[in-house]
Specification:
Layout lengths: L6 E3 L2 E3 L3 E3 L8 H4 L9 E3 L16 E4 L2 E4 L8 H7 L1 H5 L4 E6 L4 H12 L5 E5 L16 H14 L3 E5 L7 H10 L4 E4 L3 E4 L1 E2 L4 E2 L5 E5 L4 H14 L4 E4 L5 H9 L4 E4 L2 H4 L3 H16 L3 H4 L4
Parallel strand pairs: 3-4, 3-16, 4-7, 7-8, 8-9, 9-10, 10-15, 15-16
Antiparallel strand pairs: 1-2, 5-6, 6-14, 11-14, 12-13
Helix pairs in contact: 4-5, 5-6, 6-7, 8-10
Length: about 300
């Protein structure tokens, strides 16, 4: 793999700028049966919560034009089970280990962080798109002041590099990015899924039990790209770009917009080895331009 691909994110070295996105790759074991996951730059774990969660009932996945809607509900084994069963395996891959942590109260986040403080990982990705059950269900990532509070408190105890994953449903994604930087985040990632809806005409009811669900896939890419560009211009901390990447050209657009690393999610459902195609495409493009990845990052 060419040295042109090497990149850095908050002091963490990536052999290439491509990672698998949280919630789309489990802990990497399933994809390891299809391709050599050691060739990735990084891997973002399934979203973890302090305690195990069974996830949502009813419909969980619904295909839509150029995208996918999901209402999985953070089904996961919990932080302790991940540490016991999967952490060593991921650390042994030789890729950047990004552990995604969610919570439904600030106390949940802090307890989860304390457990993860005791183990080896490279970056903690804080998912603030979870509903705060103690504040009437308002997502932490919608209101800047709520996000600021959780980032400040997590930063106060977190011993790892801290990256905050931003919701595109925020009232002001640029203000949110700046608040994360001000409260000590080492980096940000964006975007998470867009709030969306589908209706079952036969039942004359919403497809999903929670009515609304998260939209991802190629349909959101132009909007995600715009938000990544805005956030990257507004902060000095590094950015990971996410949202509808299905080609190496998509990935390069995010990098030119300011992303140091990109994450591939829904695209892997279409082509499980898409990440490798993207890595190879970026490498050939850089060679044709006589450039390395850092020289083109943020050039737009």
């Amino acid at each position: 793999m060419s040295s042109r691909l090497k990149t850095e994110f908050a002091g963490v070295s990536f052999k290439n700028p491509v990672a698998l996105a949280s919630g789309t790759c489990g802990f990497g074991r399933e994809y390891a049966e299809i391709f050599d996951v050691r060739r990735l730059g990084g891997l973002c774990s399934k979203g973890l919560t302090l305690n195990p969660r069974p996830g949502n009932e009813g419909m969980r996945i619904w295909e839509t034009a150029s995208g996918v809607m999901n209402s999985v509900g953070l089904e996961n084994p919990g932080v302790r089970a991940f540490i016991e069963k999967d952490l060593d395996w991921v650390n042994g891959l030789g890729v950047v280990n990004i552990v995604n942590l969610g919570g439904h109260s600030i106390e949940d986040y802090l307890e989860g962080v304390e457990l993860l403080n005791e183990v080896k990982l490279d970056i903690l990705e804080l998912n603030i798109s979870c509903p705060n059950v103690k504040s009437g269900g308002m997502n932490f990532g919608i209101k800047t002041d709520l996000a600021r509070e959780v980032v400040r408190k997590v930063r106060g105890v977190c011993r790892h590099k801290l990256m905050v994953k931003l919701s595109p449903n925020a009232e002001d994604v640029v203000a949110l990015a700046r608040a994360c930087e001000e409260e000590g985040a080492d980096g940000i990632s964006l975007v998470n899924t867009f709030l969306a809806m589908a209706i079952d005409l036969k039942k004359r009811a919403p497809v999903f039990q929670n009515t609304y669900a998260g939209l991802s896939g190629p349909a959101i890419k132009p909007i995600a790209l715009r938000m990544v560009h805005q956030a990257a211009k507004a902060v000095r901390i590094p950015v990971m770009g996410i949202g509808g990447i299905t080609t190496w050209q998509d990935a390069m657009e995010f990098i030119m917009a300011g992303a140091a690393v990109v994450q591939i999610g829904t695209g892997s459902f279409i082509n499980p080895s898409l990440a490798l195609d993207v890595i190879e495409g970026i490498e050939k493009y850089l060679e044709s331009q006589g450039k390395n990845i850092a020289e083109l990052r943020g050039c737009i």
